[in-house]
Amino acid sequence: MAMHCPQCLTEYRDGFTECADCRVPLAPGPPPAEEETAEVHAAELITVFETSDPFAANLAKATLQDNGIEYVLGGDDSDERGLSGMSPLGAMPSRFQVEAHLAESARELLEPLIHPQAITEEEAENT
């Protein structure tokens, strides 16, 4: 029986249970036709976080992934940056977008990155 990835729609032969790229369980049967997927992928995207800081971008990626929130990354991708923190195109911001119904949850999770708070000396000594 053919299997396919529900995210990237790659078709797999028998014996595979997980998408090699997306790391999600495969769905039974062949992938849906393009006409069927066009409606599924039509979603309103809301920008929930924007940063030029590669460290903050990686934290945002991990936070959203750990909480099962799918996102679209626009602009600069921190994975392309070298040791200098600069991408081949310069310091363009990374823009994280999620589906509209997930925007509030994503913003709550990313609040420490959106509005970072300085730690006090006492907090620093206790860590």
Give the overall shape, derived from the CA principal axes. Answer: elongated
First-residue to last-residue Cα separation = 54 Å
Instruction: Please give the largest β-sheet.
Output: 3 strands, antiparallel
- Helix content range: 25-40%
| Biggest sheet strand line-up | 2-1-3
Q: Write the element-wise H/E pattern from the N-terminal end onward.
A: EEEHEHEEHH
Structure description:
The protein has about 130 residues and is α+β, with helices and mostly antiparallel strands. The protein folds into two domains: about 5-40, no CATH class; about 45-115, Alpha-Beta Plaits (2-Layer Sandwich). The protein contains four helices and six strands, in the order βββαβαββαα. Strands 2-1-3 form a three-stranded antiparallel beta sheet, with no helix packed on it. Strands 4-6-5 form a three-stranded antiparallel beta sheet. Helix 2 packs antiparallel against helix 3. The protein is elongated. The chain starts with a strand and ends with a helix. The relative contact order is 0.15. The model has no long low-confidence stretch (mean pLDDT about 80).
Brief write-up:
The chain is of the alpha+beta class. The chain has helices at 34-41, 54-66, 103-114, 121-125; strands at residues 3-4, 11-12, 27-28, 45-51, 72-75, 94-99. The chain is elongated and about 60 Å long.
List the topology elements.
Blueprint: E1 3-4, E2 11-12, E3 27-28, H1 34-41, E4 45-51, H2 54-66, E5 72-75, E6 94-99, H3 103-114, H4 121-125
Antiparallel strand pairs: 1-2, 1-3, 4-6, 5-6
Helix pairs in contact: 2-3
